[in-house]
Design brief:
0% strand; mainly alpha; 68% helix
Length: 291
């Protein structure tokens, strides 16, 4: 159990539960009803406590399980936001690594959880702190904590270290697995468009340029909502960057810099995904226009 979770649970019950006296059954029932569809850990924990006091242990166990999942998600979101704040505020790679180090002091993370974060923020791999751990992952590892293909995570380790050939091989294995089992989101066009953009980008990372261009053309023809378009458009730009088509990447990125999106001058100056084109004149001119 992560130590932050114990602190959070203690605060919930210290603030949300009466110190003395008996809570009426009507209030306990209301707390359980309030948890229907809820995702806030405090609401779910209060409901679990209420169900326990009412003697409905099956409902209490279910609510406690949901609260645990919500706490996991809250912790994941907090770690990500802490790192992204360092990135967005211009603290660079060192600031991101410092934020992640401080997060790990507060939250006990498994090796796979650490690898997952570095996959989202590969700049954390600069310096090689996690290389040995991530490269030791394999599907049949005797230790379940290291039992994972983790192809993208390992690909990033090699790429950040400058081993581009090894990186491309792993990206190739990843997209080959996607070719065998392509994800389908029949009821969520935004998710489908986002996945198609990632697929095109990863094909480019694997060195399958012709396939990447074909997949990108398909991605850019897909319907996508206005709310999700900035995220999906960023995937398209990443694909063009991987293909070395800087002008096309810039054309897609520049409108995003001026609005409230994940694309900022600081993110473009720091994130590893833009490394292939970062030092080109066209890319640097775009950054200069928005500083």
């Amino acid at each position: 159990m992560r130590k932050t979770r114990w602190i959070f649970i203690a605060l919930v019950f210290a603030v949300g539960s009466p110190l003395s006296g008996q809570t009426p059954d009507e209030e306990l029932t209301r707390r359980i009803a309030a948890a229907e569809g809820a995702q806030r850990p405090d609401v779910l924990l209060r409901a679990a406590s209420a169900a326990r006091l009412l003697g409905d242990h099956e409902a209490a166990a279910d609510l406690l399980e949901r609260a645990t999942a919500a706490l996991d998600q809250a912790e994941n979101d907090w770690v990500s936001e802490t790192i992204f704040q360092a990135l967005a505020s211009g603290k660079g790679v060192n600031g991101m690594q410092r934020a992640f180090r401080e997060a790990r002091e507060r939250i006990r993370m498994t090796p796979q959880e650490i690898a997952s974060v570095t996959n989202n923020y590969p700049a954390l791999l600069v310096g090689g702190e996690f290389d040995e751990m991530i490269l030791s992952f394999r599907p049949n590892h005797p230790d379940s904590l290291y039992r994972c293909p983790c192809l993208a995570e390992k690909a990033w380790v090699h790429r950040v270290a400058g081993r581009l050939h090894e990186s491309r091989i792993l990206w190739g294995e990843l997209v080959a697995s996607w070719d065998r089992n392509p994800l389908q989101f029949p009821n969520d066009p935004d998710a489908q468009a986002n996945w198609q953009g990632q697929y095109a980008r990863n094909l480019a990372r694997a060195g399958r340029s012709a396939d990447a261009r074909a997949a990108l053309a398909k991605a850019m023809a897909m319907p996508v909502s206005d709310d999700e378009r900035p995220s999906v458009q960023r995937r398209w730009a990443q694909t063009y960057a991987e293909l070395g088509e800087v002008e096309m990447a810039v054309e897609l990125l520049e409108p995003l810099i001026s609005s409230s999106t994940l694309v900022t001058v600081n993110s473009l100056s720091t994130r590893q995904t833009w490394e292939p084109v970062r030092n080109t004149l066209v890319f640097q001119e775009m950054l200069a226009r928005h500083r």
